[in-house]
Amino acid sequence: MSITKLEAAPRIKRRVINRDKLEADIVAVAVKVFAESGYEGASIATIADQAGLSKQNLMYYFPTKQALYERVLDDVLDDWLARMESLGAADQQPQAVLRAYVQAKLKFSREQPWASRVYAMEVISGAQLYGAQIQRRVVPLLRKDIAVFEQWIAAGKIAPVNATHLLFAIWAMTQSYADFAPQMALVLNRKQLVKKDFDDAEQLIVDMVLAAVTVPAASKSA
User: Fold this and answer.
1) Which residues bind DNA (predicted)?
2) Model pTM?
3) CA dihedral of residues 76, 68, 27, 174 (deg, nearest 10)
4) C-alpha 28, offset from chain centre
5) How many angstroms separate the CA atoms of 128 and 142, rounded?
6) Contact between 165 and 211 (Cβ < 8 Å)
7) pLDDT level of residue 88 (50, 70, 90 thresholds)
8) What confidence score (pLDDT) does residue 12 get?
9) How far apart are CA 10 and CA 160, in angstroms?
10) Rounded Cα–Cα distance for residues 129 and 193 (Å)
């Protein structure tokens, strides 16, 4: 008995969904392995074993280690950039936008520590395998964000600041709560950071950022 197009469509859809889920499961394991071992130290065999698959089965979906590594970093960058989009709201009050931006970046560090670390390791190693993608995707967004700062400065909403380095400082402060979380936990004499640590960090970082962009009272009255 032949299968009609209407009968085949749901089966094809199920296969696509199942494939997407399996790939997502593989990537979820791979991001932790790459973060712990680095690109050179990680192996397809280890990732496959931890994902409950044979090496051959995993390689059906990701033929090479580099292909899997790039997929991991694609997903990391997708998530990271999505959380950065809040800064593009130039029509909102800068203080509210910057607070939301810091909150989003710290939330990423709290929810996706392995993703943050694997990205940091790639950058620290010179971004030899993923540098082109970072430049292609991050640089245009950074320029867009700088343009927002320039609009705020021109409108007198914030003090003149070096927007590029302010953003670098925010990235460094927020990402450190993922990349250096083990060191922070050791200093705090606990096994891991807790939500209160991130809440305290948010308050301090927001206060510092807002202090940097606040227009001096004399300038406002001039």
Assistant:
1) 43-62
2) 0.83
3) -20
4) 14
5) 21
6) no
7) low
8) 42
9) 57
10) 31
CA 156 to chain centre: 31
Name the one residue in this structure whose structure tokens are 């991130």: 198
**Contact 93/149 with Cβ under 8 angstroms?**
no
Round to whole Å and give the CA distance between 48 and 39: 15
SS3 letters across 11-58: HHHHHHHHHHHHHHHHHHHHHHHHHHHHHHHCCHHHHHHHHCCCHHHH
Sign of the torsion formed by the C-alpha atoms of 22, 23, 27 and 28: negative
2: its two tokens: 């032949």
Q: Give the amino acid at 217.
A: A
Structural domains of the chain ordered from first start = 7-215 (1.10.357.10)
